[in-house]
Design a protein that fits this description.
Number of domains: 2
Number of helices: 5
Largest sheet: none
Helix content: over 70%
Number of strands: 0
Oligomer: single chain
Structural class: mainly alpha
Radius of gyration: 24 Å
Length: 159
């Protein structure tokens, strides 16, 4: 076997391995994109907060920190996906009728942590707690729905 043929076989094996890995990880691409977006928004919110507070920032240090955070989150998701895929998925499907529930829960937790950081930056600059405001909106919407239900019940009783 010539050197050229060996290289071709090696390239074919590498392509096959990368294809297999890509196929296995394909359900995670949407989750990776979500985590990248949320971590990037957190990064830009931190830059915005630093500029508004006139705090000197080191751009490359912040970028490295954000990229390492994205990498760590991705590794966590890959590990949880493996546990879900090979061990827990059958239990989740039987009890909750949802695939990869553990992975979705961990992703939700990671996004929540990033949103808390974004909220902290926003609160420091604008003085408004976005999460508390969101909870107040939900509470107000729930009150409106309850009042609408009571109005509907009173109209039914009158008829």
């Amino acid at each position: 076997m010539s050197t050229t043929e060996k290289k071709a076989v090696l390239i074919e094996l590498m392509v096959g391995l990368l294809t297999a890995i890509g196929t296995y990880l394909s359900p995670l691409f949407g989750i990776f994109m979500l985590l990248i977006i949320v971590a990037s928004v957190d990064h830009f919110a931190g830059i915005w907060r630093s500029k508004k507070k006139s705090v000197k920032i080191e751009v490359w240090k912040g970028i490295k920190k954000t990229l390492s955070k994205i990498l760590i989150y991705s590794v966590i998701c890959i590990a949880v996906h493996a546990v879900d895929h090979f061990i827990l998925n059958e239990f989740w499907i039987n009890y909750f009728n949802t695939k990869f529930l553990g992975l979705k829960g961990v992703t939700l937790l990671l996004c929540y942590l990033e949103l808390k950081s974004i909220n902290k930056s926003y609160k420091e600059v604008k003085g408004v707690d976005l999460i508390a405001t969101f909870y107040e909106m939900i509470k107000g919407a729930r009150d409106i729905v309850e009042k609408a239900k009571r109005i509907g019940k009173t109209q039914q009783n009158e008829n």
